[in-house]
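> forwarded from #structure-qc
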């Protein structure tokens, strides 16, 4: 990573370059965390082309707030937020958040827009020399109410007894064979020393692929112990407690790109070097989940609605600023239902159980909202039927529209009589034309999808112009067709690491005009002819987005799976 910057003031208790003694002891007692604000995957595209994943709303609160609140609850004193994709948006958000003013927990950012993997991120953190002691490694899309005290105590006790005990992986048991299906989790097999919880072997199936029918156990495992425990019921929480030596190992091994695919098997295969990894099993009753795909986004949202993550529930009002609507102000009622202030619900409308409605939203006559989250400033017309959907801020849904198990991003418009079927993603500013039907598992966006010869599954956003110019996929507008000066910035180098696929100014202008119901003359219609009529209907604005995931869409779609009884 060639470009790495940090926005960090000297942290209280930071180890000094010279001296030592009491100052160094104080630094080692500061509980630190490294929060990765980039997923290094593409599973939330096309939404993450325009917004960072950690700022996507989870029950109308940015995801990262849940992670930061959990770290604060566990008395973490210093958090280093590593930003890559949309680093400018993340740093601006944090600078204007309550964490910038917190006296109990210092939140500082480290930025590298050219970083391509978790391994590179940890190498940059190591080079910054900001980690003074054992630290918590967590992703910014983690939601938990778990008390880390027992895990930290066990890790520290092992470190005192054996300096080679450098890593503790937190894993949670699954009590139902289809629980992984609900979260879209992969199948995992681990071998443990039952007396010490030391990790001997770790295997994680590729996403959407069943685990191996046969699993080999190395006979040498039994040379130092009488038995080995094989667990297939444990799921990775993506929370780890690490010694500083973990960062050093990443710096020494540039082929370590991923924690579970590279670091864990790499360390386990080099047992003669002495490093030891351990597993800490999360206690029953503690909630912990990572939102690593759309399936888990739906599952975690429903869990929060049903109060499984208490005290992190809507009426905790985690949103401190809240833009023009101010801080969040949810009130809880049985159902459960969470309604914010200044919400207008017609008396004939049905707002059923499992619903969260944000401030200044209006819901018209005879409309039905069931098991859904509605953002702030939304307008829901008459006779609208919404089931199992996630509607972000400032969305307009006109009369007679029907939506099923879909995500609709900010400022989108669903015109009268339109139908959005299960599993759909309607991205920012998209307009779905009147009476048009968006078929199941479709993605519609104002971004022009492009194809590159070099596929990179480790990016949350599309690559900037650091290699060969990507080509536009078949059926989409060719680059040579774009002649407007206003559009050229969409395909230029961007010092902030933004995607080449971001919406053009022309696309935004045409979408805004269509959202206002403005009729376009032939010249304007010709200029905006790149819109995919099959995806959005005549009079709509947007392009069809084809998922690059080599998976069955039903495995990771936002539609909840059918869970069979045990």
């Amino acid at each position: 990573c060639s470009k790495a910057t940090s926005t960090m003031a000297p942290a209280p208790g930071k180890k000094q370059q010279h001296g030592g003694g009491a100052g160094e002891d104080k630094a080692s007692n500061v509980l630190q965390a490294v929060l990765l604000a980039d997923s290094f995957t593409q599973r939330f595209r096309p939404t993450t082309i325009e917004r960072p994943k950690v700022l996507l709303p989870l029950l109308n609160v940015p995801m990262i707030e849940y992670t930061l609140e959990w770290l604060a609850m566990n008395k973490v004193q210093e958090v280093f937020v590593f930003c890559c994709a949309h680093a400018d948006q993340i740093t601006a958000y944090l600078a204007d958040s309550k964490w910038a003013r917190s006296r109990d927990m210092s939140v500082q950012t480290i930025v590298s827009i050219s970083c391509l993997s978790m391994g590179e991120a940890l190498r940059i953190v190591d080079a910054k020399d900001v980690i003074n002691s054992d630290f918590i490694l967590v992703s910014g899309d983690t939601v938990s109410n778990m008390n880390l005290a027992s895990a930290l105590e066990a890790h520290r006790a092992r470190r005192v007894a054996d300096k080679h005990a450098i890593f503790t992986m937190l894993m949670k048991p699954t009590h139902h064979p289809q629980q992984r299906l609900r979260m879209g989790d992969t199948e995992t097999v681990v071998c443990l020393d039952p007396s010490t919880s030391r990790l001997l072997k770790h295997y994680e199936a590729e996403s959407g692929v069943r685990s191996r029918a046969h699993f080999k156990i190395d006979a040498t495992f039994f040379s130092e112990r009488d038995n080995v425990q094989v667990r297939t019921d444990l799921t990775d929480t993506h929370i780890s407690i690490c010694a500083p030596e973990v960062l050093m190992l990443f710096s020494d091994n540039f082929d370590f790109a991923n924690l579970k695919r590279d670091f864990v098997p790499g360390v386990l295969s080099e047992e003669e070097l002495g490093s030891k990894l351990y597993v800490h099993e999360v206690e029953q009753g503690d909630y912990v989940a990572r939102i690593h795909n759309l399936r888990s986004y739906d599952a975690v949202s429903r869990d929060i609605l049903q109060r499984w993550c208490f005290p992190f529930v809507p009426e905790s009002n985690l949103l401190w600023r809240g833009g023009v609507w101010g801080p969040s102000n949810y009130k809880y009622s049985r159902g459960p239902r969470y309604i914010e202030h200044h919400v207008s619900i017609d008396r004939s409308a049905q707002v059923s159980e499992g619903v969260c409605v944000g401030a200044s939203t209006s819901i018209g006559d005879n409309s039905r909202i069931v098991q859904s989250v509605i953002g702030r400033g939304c307008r829901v017309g008459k006779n609208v039927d919404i089931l199992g959907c996630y509607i972000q801020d400032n969305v307009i849904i006109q009369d007679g529209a029907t939506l099923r198990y879909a995500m609709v991003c900010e400022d989108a418009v669903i015109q009268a009589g339109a139908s959005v079927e299960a599993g759909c993603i309607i991205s920012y500013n998209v307009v779905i034309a009147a009476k048009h039907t968006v078929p199941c598992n479709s993605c519609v966006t104002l971004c022009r999808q492009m194809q590159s010869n070099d596929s990179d599954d480790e990016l949350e956003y599309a690559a900037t112009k650091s290699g060969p110019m990507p080509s536009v996929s078949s059926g989409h507008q060719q680059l040579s067709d774009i002649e407007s000066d206003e559009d050229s910035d969409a395909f230029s180098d961007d010092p902030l690491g933004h995607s080449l696929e971001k919406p053009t100014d022309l696309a935004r202008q045409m979408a805004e005009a269509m959202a206002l119901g403005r009729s376009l003359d032939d010249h304007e219609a010709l200029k905006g002819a790149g819109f995919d009529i099959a995806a959005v209907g005549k009079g709509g604005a947007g392009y069809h987005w084809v998922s690059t995931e080599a998976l069955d869409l039903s495995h990771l779609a936002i539609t909840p799976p059918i869970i069979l009884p045990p």
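QC bot note: The longest helix spans residues 149-161. The longest strand covers residues 165-173.
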